[in-house]
Amino acid sequence: MSHKDWEKEGLTKAEYEMIVELLGREPNRAELGMYGVMWSEHCSYKNSKPVLKKFPTAGEQVIQGPGENAGIIDIGDNQAISFKIESHNHPSAIEPYQGAATGVGGIIRDIFTMGARPIASLNSLRFGELDDEHVRFLFDGVVEGIAGYGNCIGIPTVGGEVYFSDSYKENPLVNAMSVGLMDQEDISTGTAKGVGNPVMVVGATTGRDGIQGASFASDELTEESEEDRPAVQVGDPFMEKLLLEASLELIKTGALVGIQDMGAAGLTSSSCEMASRGGAGIEFDIDSVPKREEGMTPYEVLLSESQERMLVVPKKGKEDLVKEIFEKWNLKAAVIGKVTDDGMLRVFNKGEIVAEVPASSLADDAPVYERKSKRPEYLDELQSKDVNDFLAEEKEIDFNDRLLKLMENPNIASKEWVYEQYDHMVRTNTVVHPGSDAAVLRIKGTKKGLAISTDCNSRYCYLDPERGGSIAVAEAARNVVCSGAKPLAITDGLNFGNPMNPEIFWQFEKSAEGISKACEKLGTPVTGGNVSFYNESPKGAVYPTPIIGMVGLMSDVEKAVTQDFKDEGDIIFLIGETKEELGGSEYLKTFYDKEEGRVPEIDIDLEKDVQDFVLNAIEAGIVKSAHDCSEGGLAVNLAESCINGNKGAEIDLGKSSLTDIAKLFAESQSRIVISIAKDDLENLEELKKNSNLNIEKLGEVKGENLKINNLIDLPLKELKARWKESIASRMKA
Amino acid sequence: MRFAVITFPGSNCDQDCYHVTDNIFGIETDMLWYEDEVELSNYDCVILPGGFSYGDYLRSGAIARFAPLMDKVIEYANNGGLVLGICNGFQILLEAGLLPGAMKVNNNLKFVCKDIALEVVNGENPFTNQTQKGEKIILPVAHGEGNYYIDDKGLVDLKKNDQIVLRYLNDEENPNGSVDNIAGICNKEGNIFGLMPHPERAAEKILGSKTADGYKIFASIIKYLEENSSNKRGEKIES
């Protein structure tokens, strides 16, 4: 074969030579294609494995850690939660509606493959600035795609986050998370074993769409990427709704040995991974695969990424039961082959062998690379800037105007325009709707509730990847705590540039270190996730964006707390301490267009104490509102609680050595604002006795204005209008 | 008392309706599969739930109305049985000709999911007797095709016969551009009710909607059935 053949499949010469050695011969075209996708970063994690191995993954709550289609955690009463986040960045950059829609479809399949019924979707989105027409096109299309798929399949999209920054202008990030609920006895895995057990394809037919999607995802976006549009799949949420119901019905029968979603690299990845996990082989016949077009070559059938398909291995003799269930849902189910004991993946077409390779060589033997890593040049310069110097130069600031401008900054403004397009209530479990710190869902038939949040401040990660990684975990946990739940575990969506660039790889390594540190101390292991490299355009890499999806559990969902102020006269407290920390802040970006300085410190021990204190107070039943302090600092935090509660507040930040700017807008970590009824002041005092935390009375819920010292005095109406209309009015432009 | 909820391929609020009637109100409820042509006269109320039957491909409800069980629903409704169509269920009732008018795509072309304020226009039919005429209630909506249309003559008839049951409170609250802010209508006889809002999503206080006003819709049906228990199932209601 010539170098062109392997390069076309995304392989290097050295990798090609490894394949020849593994097989003891040259691979044919179909086999080469199979290695090409399976050894892509997207499927093999060949560049990220050494780093991912360092994540803490153990914990008594963990039933299934990384390595399966999704992680599983124990929530008691013999129930479990399966959850995972996954990226669909490149498809969304080329075809935003279908790219985002199939991202949602893919992650939902990963969850019901595990035997869980998906009960909630979340997402984490990043775009360029909204003054750009193409960015608005992408944003509009992605949101509509998520809505189109999620609403139709009937799984509520209950939360998420959206941020806008120039670094994502041509390479948006679209990460979708799915959360599923199951009884522990229904846990399924993607395993093929038992010689002679049938191998079946169920669901949709196989077409030519999405061929080489995994390889496409493992390359940088260029001017020519538009030509890769055929590599983007097309989703059919109605089909997936049927597939979901049929699959869960099938799993309940106990007739299955294993089941796996056909996502990236379709039939190839599902068959070799299932065989490899079971220490078995699989042989199947291309002729038996139900196809939607004539004349497909073995190469195309093996690599098709047609959506809404699953590979299942039932126990021998249960073929008809599988067919019966799928036919009820108007879906196809076809036996295409069987499990063998020789560890080979053997593919037939018209009676001839068209591919014959060791299954584990595809699934597990991709080379693993220790990539070079180097601290980026830009860091010293940006970190050494003392932002307080030039902030101090400005006198006579109109803080009312500053707060209003921050409230209409799209990174802070209401995301109503987004989440009102998502059905966030279907299945009638949504206790806390989008817009609060975390989404809260009840678990019917129990008193329990789940709180779920996705978080990442990528500007922090750009300025200090390790700290940024820790802060992402800490904030996600804080949001879950503010809702009244104990953080249990995370999934991570790691979005970075080209890992061959040592500076990018350093960002990746350091972010992961930061995540690990925070996860260990907060007791929230990593149960799985996704790595997305090559998020680059000709203008450079995106900011390092390790998104954390956190799941927490509350024993009594009636005690769920929201961020909005509730009643006139309630007393407002700050748990934690504000410092002179404006480096990397939204304030700095909004008013000085600067992204520099030292990002806020994070002390995970302190963070844990703050979270424990607030969780205790919530469980004691004295907290009426709780809201995490993040972008825009304390002033934005208070304004949001006022707006959402339709209540004003009178705040006295007291005397301190801090500048007014820091008092209002510093983004110091480990801070939570709570409000309590006056009658509960003594109870709070009692809780304070055992605590060394800084707990400061800020003021009370009162009137129709937000007043802070003599710095801010704004009518609620005005704050609300600016905050609420911002994104909608930009999208009308 | 016995209710039925019909599941079409793509229904996704069927379990939510079941949860309210069976778990909240304790009424025995059967889930019926769209292909099973079962006798409906044994049921006191049949619910067509929300969702995306057949993916809403072609047009909302346009394919579902040909489902085998729909013939039975039409027969049941024509015999005076209570039929509640919520969201996609309402769309199916329109397509099946059991209610007048048609549904268009929302006027801003976007799906919308939020709590909406409504005015009860007719508080005296089997579905609203636990509300008052003129009462403001809040229910969530979640749809992309809820822009109700009826021609002028049809609208006059609706008004004349008191068939407009729920209206969006005002033009600002109207989420989809519906004619005359119409959110829900019934047939002349009052035994068939279709509405775009989702009462089953607001039947419990624990859920995140502003009120639990949806409870009143189901409570009305039950109250009506209790008071008319002498009425044999499936028999015509005297209007």
How is this structure best described in words?
The complex is a heterodimer of chains A (733) and B (239). Chain A contains 27 helices and 28 strands. Chain A is α+β, with helices and mostly antiparallel strands. In chain A, the strands form five sheets. Chain A has a seven-stranded mixed beta sheet with strand order 8-10-7-11-9-12-13. A seven-stranded mixed beta sheet of chain A has the order 23-25-22-26-24-27-28. In chain A, strands 1-2-3-6-4-5 form a six-stranded mixed beta sheet. Helices cover 37% and strands 23% of the residues of chain A. In chain A, helix 7 (96-113) runs parallel beside helix 10, helix 17 (399-407) crosses helix 27 (716-732) and helix 20 (465-482) packs parallel to helix 23. Chain B is of the alpha/beta class and 239 residues long. Helix content of chain B is 22%, strand content 24%. Chain B has a nine-stranded mixed beta sheet, sandwiched between helices. The longest helix of chain B is centred in the last third of the chain and has 14 residues, at 214-227. Chain B is globular, with a radius of gyration of 16 Å. The two termini of chain B are 22 Å apart. Classes of the chains: A alpha+beta (733), B alpha/beta (239). The A-B interface holds A 144, 147-148, 151-154, 236-239, 241-242, 329-330, 419-433, 440, 442, 444, 557-558 and B 9-13, 15-16, 19-20, 23, 50-52, 54-57, 110-114, 140, 142, 144, 198, 200-201, 204, 206-209.
How far from one another are the termini of chain B? 22 Å
Question: What is the total tally of β strands of chain A?
Answer: 28
> What's the total helix number of chain B?
5
Oligomer: heterodimer
Overall structural class of chain B, as computed from helix and strand content, comes to alpha/beta
Secondary-structure element pattern of chain B, one letter each? EHEEHEHEEEEHEEEH
The number of helices of chain A is 27
> Mean pLDDT of chain A, as a whole number?
95
